[in-house]
Amino acid sequence: MADEEVELSDEQKKEIAKWFLLNAPAGEIQFVAKDVKKILNDDELYHEAASEAFPQYNKSHMICIEMPGRVGDVIITPFNELEENEFLDPRTAQVAIIDNIKQVCTEVRHALDEELPSAYVEEFRYAVDMEVSRYVGEAYPKGVCSVYCVNGKDAEGPESDFELAVVIAAARHSPQNFCNGSWRSTWNIEFKSDFQSLEIKGKMQVGAHYFEEGNVQLDAKHECNDSTVLQAPEDCAAAIANIIRHHEAEYLVSLETSYSNLPDTTFKDLRRKLPVTRTLFPWHNTSQFSLTRDIAKELGIGK
Amino acid sequence: MEAAMGLMRRMPPKHSETALSALLTLLPHHSSDLLSQVDQPLQVICDVDNGKEFILCEYNRDADSYRSPWSNKYHPPLEDGAMPSIELRKLEIEANEVFTIYRDQYYEGGISSVYMWEDDEESFVGCFLIKKDGSKTGHGRRGFLQEGAWDAIHVIEVRLEDEGTASYCLTSTVMLSLTTDNNAAGTFSLSGSIRRQMKMKLSVAEGHLCNMGRMIEEMESKLRNSLDQVYFGKTKEMVCTLRPPSEVVHMKLPDK
């Protein structure tokens, strides 16, 4: 770039601002936004960056927004996005119109018929939603979930393929305890009529940030696959919920194993708790080292 | 500056280099403040005289050159580069030798450098640096880590007091990141940085190096411990708050 040394172009500044916003830990984008705004010192430019970064952040973090009028919550995901600020809540057949930057829902409207799946697909979607909701209620103290049809929503009968996406999100923000975290998982389920089977692909992502006198972050991801047979909606739903439950429980166990491996294996490769000699370093008697080194030098061994 | 430091406290520590360079481009007139207040992963170059690697930092830099603790020469060469006094250089040489052994015993690899300089007549400063690549491809003895970095910066101010004592003020920063990756558990990555201070008044009977060394050893153990127990522990606690593990127990029963 020719003008690199002169002055950063607005476009470059905006990209940097977006980078900071998108890298905000779960639940912290508003704090990051405040700092970014101060640093940019250009409200117009900040607004441009924010209006590009927030929609992306909200979807990738799958944030949960309350709809007015006690209708319930809507999850912001790539799967239920109708417009940049319109998200479908299939459970209530409502569309939430949101303000991405303020992260609030400004109004709701009824979903149009063409925005909803066919009765055939809805029967499956509804059954899966019921089963997964029950599981999420049991497993996550503050979890939310939703089920969307992401492909073939107009499928009319057992001969046609379609795809559902199950989204589970749980977030905990406790800035007073200097800690934030989020769990997000998405399960894509392909209903394949040819093989009378369901192909399931799962993605789980966990983040945590602890920042009392320091900055420590966990970032963990895992993907997995599974399959089951195509059956009646209720049976499919029960099978899907079981598969999700099984994989998520297993993943949690593997996270705990990763943590318990830290002190004695993983962390040891960075720095040991005690020296290889298993006693504190002999600072009072370091002359022994130069002595042995002198001998080594004389004998021509060592470095 | 306050906003910039606020951002550094929130950005993922493993991206701290990117975050710092982004801030430097946005706030060029704050660059010296940023560089002195934001800790960043240590850089290493090779001493042309003896092929040994040494660590770069603000304390061995003069203009665009860095002084090697091994040959005492600036890289790239620099005329009239700042040098410690002959006496202090002696202590620096000894400190580098001993610290190499200390580092090897605790880290089983890695690189270390110690730099000393006079502050005024009654005081001097020592900077002890350690960089360790604990990944499989680096110096990880056990081969558990896809990626693993530990950078430790210890800056210790020594002020001579009356009656054979000296006061020591140690400021230590540790930055680390570790990633494990396998099919069964996916990618698991922890990264962080913490900074602590320790002050002591000690007799110099056993020498400055002995006092500084003990303080650094104690501090490193404390930092390692609080990262391991407190900081990593808190993130684990968070995971278990999001999805409590008790459910795992009674869910496994009907399965088998």
TrEMBL record, chain A:
GO terms for biological process: actin cytoskeleton organization; barbed-end actin filament capping. Pfam families: F-actin_cap_A (PF01267). GO terms for molecular function: actin filament binding. Gene3D superfamilies: F-actin capping protein, alpha subunit, F-actin capping protein, beta subunit. Keywords: Actin capping, Actin-binding. GO terms for cellular component: cortical cytoskeleton; F-actin capping protein complex. Heterodimer of an alpha and a beta subunit. F-actin-capping proteins bind in a Ca(2+)-independent manner to the fast growing ends of actin filaments (barbed end) thereby blocking the exchange of subunits at these ends. Unlike other capping proteins (such as gelsolin and severin), these proteins do not sever actin filaments. Belongs to the F-actin-capping protein alpha subunit family. PANTHER family: F-ACTIN-CAPPING PROTEIN SUBUNIT ALPHA. This is F-actin-capping protein subunit alpha.
From TrEMBL, chain B:
GO terms for cellular component: cytoplasm; F-actin capping protein complex. The keyword Electron transport does not apply. GO terms for molecular function: actin filament binding. Transmembrane segments: none annotated. One of its GO terms (biological process) is barbed-end actin filament capping. It holds the Pfam family F_actin_cap_B. SUPFAM superfamilies: Subunits of heterodimeric actin filament capping protein Capz (SSF90096). It is found in: Cytoplasm, Cytoskeleton. The keyword Acetylation applies. Keywords: Acetylation, Actin capping, Actin-binding, Cytoplasm, Cytoskeleton. It comes from the Eukaryota. InterPro entries: CapZ_alpha/beta (IPR037282), CapZ_alpha/beta_2 (IPR042276), CAPZB (IPR001698), CAPZB_N (IPR043175), F-actin_capping_bsu_CS (IPR019771). Heterodimer of an alpha and a beta subunit. F-actin-capping proteins bind in a Ca(2+)-independent manner to the fast growing ends of actin filaments (barbed end) thereby blocking the exchange of subunits at these ends. Unlike other capping proteins (such as gelsolin and severin), these proteins do not sever actin filaments. Belongs to the F-actin-capping protein beta subunit family. This is F-actin-capping protein subunit beta.
